[in-house]
Automatic annotation (TrEMBL):
Residues bound to [4Fe-4S] cluster 2: C233, C237, C240
Positions contributing to [4Fe-4S] cluster 1 binding: C87, C123, C157
Quaternary structure, from the entry: Monomer.
Span of domain Radical SAM core: 219-448
Catalyzed reaction equations: N(6)-dimethylallyladenosine(37) in tRNA + (sulfur carrier)-SH + AH2 + 2 S-adenosyl-L-methionine = 2-methylsulfanyl-N(6)-dimethylallyladenosine(37) in tRNA + (sulfur carrier)-H + 5'-deoxyadenosine + L-methionine + A + S-adenosyl-L-homocysteine + 2 H(+)
Chief location: cytoplasm
Coiled coil: none
Recorded GO MF terms: 4 iron, 4 sulfur cluster binding; metal ion binding; tRNA-2-methylthio-N(6)-dimethylallyladenosine(37) synthase activity
Family as reported in the entry's similarity comment: Belongs to the methylthiotransferase family. MiaB subfamily.
Gene: miaB
Positions of the TRAM domain: 451-514
Name of protein: tRNA-2-methylthio-N(6)-dimethylallyladenosine synthase
Enzymatic class: transferase
Amino acid sequence: MNEQQRKELNQIKENPTDRKSAQDKPLKEKTSADFAKYFETTYQPPSLKNAKKRGKEDVNVHYDFDIPEDIARIGEGKKFLIRTYGCQMNEHDTEIMAGILTDIGYESTSDTNEADIILLNTCAIRENAENKVFGEIGHLKPLKQEKPDLIIGVCGCMSQEESVVNRILQKHPFIDLIFGTHNIHRLPQLVKEAMFSKEMVVEVWSKEGDIVENLPRQRKGSIKAWVNIMYGCDKFCTYCIVPYTRGKERSRLPQDIIQEVRQLAAQGYKEITLLGQNVNAYGKDLDMEYGLGDLMDEIRKIDIPRVRFTTSHPRDFDDRLIEVLAKGGNLLDHIHLPVQSGSSEVLKIMARKYTRERYLELVHKIREAMPNATLTTDIIVGFPNETEEQFQETLSLVEEVGFEGAYTFIYSPREGTPAAKMKDNVPMEVKKERLQRLNALVNHQAAETMKKYEGEMVDVLVEGESKKNPDVLAGYTHRNKLVNFRAPKSLIGEIVQVKVTKAKTWSLDGELVQTAEVKS
Ligand code: 5AD
Ligand code: SF4
C-alpha cells in the first residue's frame, strides 16, 4: 500500500461518517425560491451519517396499494413511454411503473412523439450514466415546447441525489416531475399532481420506504422474469452510490417471494432471476435465521425450469448457499461474483471486507461444489492511487480464477462517497490503458472457454430472434452462453438441444438437434 493509500485508509477509519458532499451545501446558496422552500420543508438529503445509523427500525410490509377513484382513469386515451437506464433493478422498477400507468388508463408506446408522459428511469452508478440522461433531457426540450401538455418525469437513482435535483431545478425547469426510488407506489398521485400543477412536482425521500407487495406490474416478456427478493444495500463500498440511492437492506418475506415464483411458473415463465443489490445479505434483516440458501432450497422445488440470482457479494456468500447451489436441477451453473480488484490493499480501501486470498478460497469452494459453473465478475480499474503492481494483481486474479466474462469499468468518482474525496494520482490515460489491457485478457479468456463448446450439445432456452439476423434464433445455455441457430419461430420460449458448430468470443453458433427434456 503506498503512502497516499495509507492516508486515505486512515481517514476513512478515523472519520467514517464525515462525508461532506453537495448535500451539505448551505441552502441559502440555492437560487430559486421554490427550490429552497422544497429543500427546507420536504427534502432530507441522503447522508452517510444517517445511513450508517440505519437498520434498527422495522420495515413495514404493505399489501394495501390502492388507486384512488379520482385518479383511476386519468390516463385514458393517453400513452406512456419509460426509458430505462442502468441495472436490472431499474428494469424491475420500470415494470412496476408500467403496471401502475396501465392501471390508470395509459397505453404503452415506444414512439417519443406519441407519448403523453415520458419517464426517464435513471442510473447514478457512474458519471457517464448520468451524462447520458442529461443528454436525453436536453433532447426532450424541443418536444416539450411543441407539446406543453407532455409530462416529462425523472425518477430512479439520479433523483435520489441532491446535486441532480438541484441541476434539474436550475437548468431544466421544463421537467414536470422528479420522484425517488422509494416513491414509486405514489406514481398515481404524482401523475395527477403533475397534470394539474404549474410547478415542478418533486417527491424524494431520503428515508428508505417500506415494502409494498401488491403493486401492479407489466412484465417485459413472457419467458424470463425478475423477482426482487430484497431492496437496498448496507455494504457501503467506498466508491459506490447505491447505499444512498437505494437505501438500507430490506428483505421481502419468503412466503411473498415463493408465492410470486409459483405464480410465474403457473403462467408458463421458463426462467426467473432473483434480484437484489446484494442478494447474499437476503434475510439478515428478518431476524428469522433464514438466508438466500434457504430461500433457493425452497425455490428449486418449484416447477420452473431455470433459476438465476444476481448480484452476489463475496463477503456474504455462505456455505449453506453453496451446498444448495450444488444440488443443481433448475439452479443454473452461473455465478456472477463481483471482485472489483485483485489487490488486497485496494480491496481494503474499497471497504470490500475480503482479501484476494479469501476471494480465491471462496472460488475454490464454489468450484469444488459446482465443477461446471461459469464464473463472471465486475472489475473497477484506476481506483484512486492504484499502482501498476496492484493492477497486475487484478490481471493475475482474472487468470487464476479463469473468469469467462467480466463487466469492466474505469473508476468514476461519485459525489458524497468516501472515495470521491480521495486524492488520485493516476492519470486518465493510464486508467484507459489499464482498462484496455484488462479487456484484452477477459476477451481472450472468454474466447478460449467458448472454443471448448465446439461439437458439444447444449440446452438452450430460446428467447427470440437474434439481434443481428431475424432469421436466426438466440438463447442462453445453462451456463449462460449465448447461442445462435436456425430453427422455427414456434420454438421461442422452449428449451431445445443445439449442437455447437462454431465458437466466437461472446457467442456460439449451432444447429438445432431436437426439443430437449426440460430440466427440473
Ligand atoms: N465507478 C466505477 N464503477 C463502479 N461500480 C460501482 N460504483 C462504481 C464507480 N463509482 C461498478 C462495480 C459494481 C458495478 C455494478 O458497477 O463494479 O459491481
Ligand atoms: Fe455498491 Fe454492490 Fe458495494 Fe452495495 S455491495 S455498496 S451495491 S458495489
